[in-house]
């Protein structure tokens, strides 16, 4: 049997007319790439029905919010996903007050741009995890911005960046810039686009907004 016949018998039919050295054909390359993409990266496996602050964020403590400010911090998903809740955890309430949650698209140079979705308004009137219901499919490798605007001054769980996506704090030449903060007079809505002239603030100053995963797309 010819060399080409032996090799063809060992693997599935190669593509692009490559009948010899099939293991190095496009078929083998694509098959291996598929295995790496769907089995080799643990970041691709997220449990549906749970809340996430997409990497590289984790809980760090609490943050006292100030009225009439809007926050936005970035995240990039490792694969396409659909989310159906957006929530914050209120640890000290502000009676009769609310906050509004949403998502922004990327603008320029890691600054939030146009409003993608207003998830909804939540009450910060009691100590609880409060969530707004929405449904939004998000794409892998795209920068999105989790946003929160507060009417009052509740205390909420915050989040902390492990990776300095937006550089270090130049004033002290240490720490991490994590979140954009801008002025926005609260009106139960979110501005579109995100207000200009925002300030970069430190990791400890980021409200811990989380989203619930509906499906892996």
Structural features, described:
This protein has helices at 3-10, 26-39, and strands spanning 51-52, 57-64, 69-76, 81-92, 98-106, 112-123, 128-138, 143-150, 155-161, 168-169, 174-183, 199-202, 206-207, 210-216. It has 217 residues and is mainly beta. The protein folds into two domains: 3-40, no CATH class; 46-216, Sandwich (Jelly Rolls). The longest helix has 14 residues, at 26-39. The model is unreliable at 1-11 (pLDDT under 50).
Q: Which whole number gives the mean pLDDT? A: 83
Number of strands: 14
Fraction in beta strands: over 45%
**What Rg is obtained from the alpha carbons, in whole angstroms?**
23 Å
Output the number of helix runs: 2
In short:
The chain is mostly beta strands. 10% of the residues lie in helices and 47% in strands. The protein has 2 domains: 3-40, no CATH class; 46-216, Jelly Rolls (Sandwich).
């Amino acid at each position: 049997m010819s060399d080409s016949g032996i090799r063809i018998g060992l693997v599935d039919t190669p593509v692009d007319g490559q009948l010899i050295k099939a293991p190095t054909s496009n078929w083998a390359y694509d098959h291996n790439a598929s295995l790496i993409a769907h089995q080799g990266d643990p970041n691709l496996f997220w449990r549906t029905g749970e809340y996430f602050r997409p990497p590289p964020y984790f809980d760090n403590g609490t943050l006292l919010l100030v009225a009439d400010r809007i926050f936005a911090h970035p995240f990039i998903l490792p694969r396409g996903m659909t989310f159906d809740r957006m929530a914050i955890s209120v640890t000290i309430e502000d009676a009769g007050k609310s906050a509004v949650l949403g998502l922004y698209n990327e603008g320029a140079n890691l600054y939030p741009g146009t409003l993608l979705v207003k998830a909804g308004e939540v009450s910060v009137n009691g100590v609880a995890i409060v969530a707004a219901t929405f449904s939004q499919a998000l794409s892998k490798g795209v920068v999105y911005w989790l946003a929160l605007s507060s009417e009052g001054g509740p205390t909420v769980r915050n989040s902390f960046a492990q990776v300095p996506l937006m550089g270090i704090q130049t004033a002290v030449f240490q720490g991490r810039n994590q979140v954009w903060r801008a002025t926005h007079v609260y009106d139960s809505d979110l501005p579109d686009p995100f207000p200009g002239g925002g300030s970069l603030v430190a990791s400890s100053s980021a409200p811990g907004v989380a989203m619930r995963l509906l499906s892996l797309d």
